[in-house]
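Anyone else keep sequences and structure tokens together like this?

Example one:
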Amino acid sequence: MKIWQTFKEIFTTPDLKKKILWAIGLLVIARILAHVPLPGVDIEALRGFFGRNQIFGLLNMFSGGAMENFSIIMMGVGPYITASIIIQLLTMVIPALDEINKEGESGREKINYWTRIISVPLAIVNSYGMIKILQSQQILSNLEPMQWATILISITAGTILLMWIGELITENGIGNGISLLIGLGILSGIPTQLRNTIAVLDTTKIIGLLAFAVIAVLVIVAIILANEGMRQIPVTYARRMRGNQSSGGIDTYLPIRVNSAGVIPIIFAMSMMIFPGVIAKFFETARSPWLAEGAKNIANLFQNNLFYGIVYFVLVILFTFFYTGVIFKPDQMSENLQKQGGFIPGIRPGRETTEYLGRIISRITLTGAVFLGVIAVLPFVVQAATNINTMVLGGTGILIMVSVIIETMRQIQAQLAMRAYENY
């Protein structure tokens, strides 16, 4: 009943309805672009290549099938995400960038501008590498210089267009546009995976499919609990007297979420895991025997599920600590509390508060990091347990979709609450 009431409020609020319809319209345009192909490729051979290769299958899943369609947006928002990773790393090591990032809205606009600029050469390099890989697999024929230029410009323009659509959704619609595009891309691949699973389904795999469904439900519940779970650190603000008026004396809490990093560590780790395999595929056809043999060994190594899962798990944990360290700085939190007259009961302000917050954040981050790592490698475990290889959604895709849905719902509820307050 409450859900229907929420829907009713959404579509009876003109501004909110406009934002939601605007976001839906742009997402539909993005899905149309995913089916606009470039010429010169054997589509059936291309789909077979992505179906056989796990690494490129993941890439195709996150592009919403645009890669196997050889679409103009086949690279998706991957170059933009890679550029964001580069900028965040540079912000950590270059003090000047860190100062710009602290300038508020103007600083964030500068950082976003540089991220967009870096996305262009990255899109060109990624497109070139992908085309060379397809040529090495005899999926794409040799191209003339003009054909090269046309395809590279088209794919790069498609990436920039998709990035622009994502920013338009963020500015004028509801939710984070880039996250919505990634989530929609994952969601759009589910019908095809179900169709492929049903096509090869027999009596021996029915139990596996039921187990897959049960695991999926349990994973969704675990993700929701992890996303909503938090540690509430009590904070007390001292009472201040100004003339006859007093202020402060408030007991509140500082919330630290279990999964404060969201899906960012998994996306970062996936980008790192995909990179060696892509480069190795590129050099498999090198003229130097040692280089070709080394590239083939690396490619085979990253095709090993055990090795891939272990490295992936470790990278997710490392990136979780890295990203949490970027957004949570105990010294700054302690300083801000002290400036505002706040303190944690039983803990002295200053160094002791910093050390206390550091311990709490480290413990919570470890729990969240292990959870994200388990979610990341879950597809390998599920496929081994159920013997179903046609469902590649896995925990990562579910985590992204659930996180995107939860965040979008929060923004919608915030908009409804704000309008209810204004009307009141």
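And example two:
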Amino acid sequence: MKIILLYPKWTSEYGIFGHFAKKGSTWPPLNLAYIAAIAERKGHIVKIIDGQAEGLSLKAIIDQTEEFGPDLIGITATTPFFNVVNTLAKGLKNRMGEKAIIIGGHHITVLKEKAFFPWFDYAFIGEAENSWNEFLEQYENDKDISEVKGILYRKKENIVFTGNVDSIQDIDSIPYPARHLLNSSLYKMGTLRGTKQFTTIMTARGCPFRCIFCSTEVFGRRVRKRKPSSVIDEMKYIINKQGTKHFIFLDDTLTLDRKHILDICKLIEEKNLNITFEGNTRADFVDEEIILHMSRAGLIRISFGLETVDENIKTIIKKDVPLESYKIANKLTNKYGIETLNSCMIGLPGETISTVKKTLDFLKNSREIKQANMSIAIPYPGTELYEMAKKGEYGLKLITDDFSKYRRYNSAVMFVGKLSPKDLIKLQNKAYIDIYSMPWRIVPMLKKSGIFGGVLTLSRAVKHVINNLSLINRIKIGA
């Protein structure tokens, strides 16, 4: 069979923030590359179109899909741009109505039948690799797919769910993602060491923590790790095949298993891979030994999920990491020359002008933090925060079920106590101004976002000051 897998352009939905999103979040669609590899292993002809990286309109994607002449069309989407995928799928149905369209990803996994619209023929729920493998076998031979777990499909007028699929225990059994189907030169990332061509890689799946703003619907809470030697073999393969030597680890908590990450770092050094890499972790899961060995192996950037400095909010969101842990971790990473980013949110349960001010003051004045990401808390379906917002707990009030509005930048979908959605957006703009107006952050910001990004930030600063003097005064007095 001929199979085409589609990832539409989504950053245009973000307006002025689209520039920053494109700079920092145009990553290879690894989930599509995984299922492409499985299909190729079974002898199928596969094509991936990454509309985001290639800058393609939906019409261009539909035109290229029709030209390819597939037997199956697969699309993936997260919640904020599921509306884009709906438009794409409807366009494909109008043009190529006889072709089966498959949807996968986190949004459909959480909402299932509620998001299984008429233009989709099949949906994959949860970890898709095993289901996909079995589905291709049954579909190609025109056999009954009802025994394939993890699938939504239609039987006459009814939607049928075949039941939850078991999680994959041996993730080393999954073939390497088919990165050769992507244009590796399109994936570049600004760092303090210059612009680097990069790819993404996973060493583990699953997250044991229970932060209220995250969902574990796809990979679950049970952590399954790859063998360090398998991770190294994949890195070597990527280096030899496409010349990419910068890696972004997609693990939820890269240093969760101390021995695992130290073994990977040891092998990177032993095999002289001469790579650079980055990833995310918790501040209380690093120490000097780990940072030292990660630095020697090529770590150049790390992100800690600070979220907020307010201890009451930390308790509510189940992120009980002491502020002191961040201070220690940030100093350690800077000691070894590692670019340090702290990610925070505005609009978590319990948020007030005073709590926002505390977080901004910490970020603004900490020289160890070279970059800070300030998003607006969004109650995505499948999270405890979403349930809290629907119930009105902690003064939360959800104002829309239009998921196209569920974006973390320049958009807010709930009241948080006395803070309105408009207040949250204004606070986010002010946060970026406060953070990146510090002299020691100007160069890191320009290296990551470029000159144009710097001009956009400056224009936002001027506009914000002119339009929001009253809010600025409220923050000054903590009202």
